[in-house]
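ugh ok fine here u go
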Amino acid sequence: MPDFNNPAPLILTLMLDEASQTYFNDLRRQHFPPNINYLAAHLTLFHHLPGADLANIRQQLSALCRNQTPLALQVTGLRSLGRGVAFTLENEQLRALHRRLQSLFAAHLTPQDQQKLQPHVTIQNKVTPEAARQLLAALQPAFAPFAAVGTGLHLWAYRNGPWESLAEFPFDM
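structure:
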């Protein structure tokens, strides 16, 4: 049950096309430690927006997404996270959208969310560095760049592990 006196922080992610989401989810199920794999694969745009400002944030996201076309993303490679592995994604329009959102939310951003976006989807995390190196080495030889599509934004409440879906904002198709 939500505590309305202390609203949960909000997380904003980019929604992906169904085929890409399924692909990343399958890899995450295979390689993420099952006891802490609460979430589907995701591309996080903001890690901590203020839950107390939920109504205003929803309104801003809704208005923004009505005028945003889907984003043709390029999955460009694999990246070590030290204790995990992620796929890197590129799209200049996504970076521009992120900068625009940073401007909208500037008064509320944590230092982490003030940084330049490095788009990625994590398929493994919180493992030993050796396990992460092994997975990266196993995946790299077969990797070939591929396309994905950003289809909208998804707003979540952070619930100390699992996330609660609050709203989806599809891009204008």
